[in-house]
Design brief:
By secondary structure, this protein is of the alpha/beta class. It is built from eight helices and ten strands. 34% of the residues lie in helices and 27% in strands.
């Protein structure tokens, strides 16, 4: 599945938090300085730069104020893509993996379009070369990212945690996965990223067949081929209810900690999925 990048040209992907970088960019910064956008006034204090003083206001009111403005900064984006065996489902189409690649490429395109450095780490699977792309703003970073993903075959088992912790700090962490990660390593890494003032965006990708499994008698865990389970009509109904409840719990867990969580169906329109992801910070800002 290839994402039509032309369909994303009109979109912008704002940061969910004020960016902490010192390099000039497009996102509101945690710093305030002499940017052209006026944010507020504050009474002059000893040590303030006199260049920030509003002389016209001083002449009118006989009181000294400095102009505070909101600087703009870059928001480095680190994308971690799950390439473990469960992402190769369904076997006939590998829809989850194809959707994950398209989502990662589309989001990288939007971050790069904003002037942000973009990097990639693929966890699990097999590839002929490197599975890490260092964050960069160079012109060919998005095609390079897409090419790297195209050379990966999902498989095996691995933890997302180390890759998520690799560049923990300011900026945006995007995790594209089915969120079937075992253990707490990836949650701990996400919490460290959030504590450092960064964004965390979890994009869960599940196939339509996982939501409504076919009547095939039994299912096999791709990451544990020896674990076959019977799945009759009654079990399927219980499974669907349990899956919905689990996704709600996952969403609640991540959102309670200040992260974004989006659950998407692999076979659905990837552009609409990306639109939902980038619209979330705008909706949150309007709600504030």
């Amino acid at each position: 599945m290839r994402v039509p990048l032309d369909a994303l040209q009109s979109l912008a992907w704002p940061a969910r938090r004020s960016a902490s970088g010192t390099r000039s960019g497009t996102h509101p910064s945690t710093l305030r300085g002499r940017a052209p956008e006026l944010s507020a006034y504050r009474a002059y204090r000893s040590g303030d730069d006199v260049r920030d003083m509003d002389w016209k206001l001083l002449a009118r009111s006989d009181r000294a104020y400095v102009r505070l403005s909101e600087d703009r900064a870059i928001h480095p984006t680190w994308i971690v893509v799950d390439a473990t065996a469960s992402m190769a489902f369904p076997v006939a189409t590998r829809a989850k993996w194809e959707a994950a690649c398209a989502l990662a490429t589309g989001l990288a395109f939007l971050a790069h379009k904003a002037g942000d450095p973009v990097g990639l780490r693929v966890v699990g699977g097999s590839a002929p070369g490197e599975t890490t792309l260092a964050p960069s703003t160079r012109r060919d970073v998005v095609p390079a990212l897409a090419a790297l993903l195209a050379g990966v075959t999902p498989g095996g088992r691995a933890s997302l945690g180390p890759a998520m912790a690799e560049r923990a700090g300011g900026g945006r962490l995007v995790v594209v996965s089915d969120a079937l990660e075992d253990g707490d390593a990836w949650r701990d890494a996400a919490n460290r990223w959030l504590a450092a003032g960064g964004d965390v965006v979890v994009v869960q990708v599940l196939s339509r067949e996982e939501w409504t499994p076919a009547d095939q008698g039994s299912v096999v865990d791709p990451e544990d081929p020896g674990g076959e389970r019977e799945l009759g009509a009654e079990a399927r109904a219980g499974y669907a209810a349990a899956l919905s409840a689990w996704v709600r719990r996952e969403s609640d867990w991540w959102r309670a900690r200040g992260a974004a969580f989006h659950s998407l169906v692999a076979e659905d329109d990837v552009v609409q999925g990306i639109r939902a992801i980038v619209a979330e910070p705008l909706a949150a800002a309007e709600a504030r």
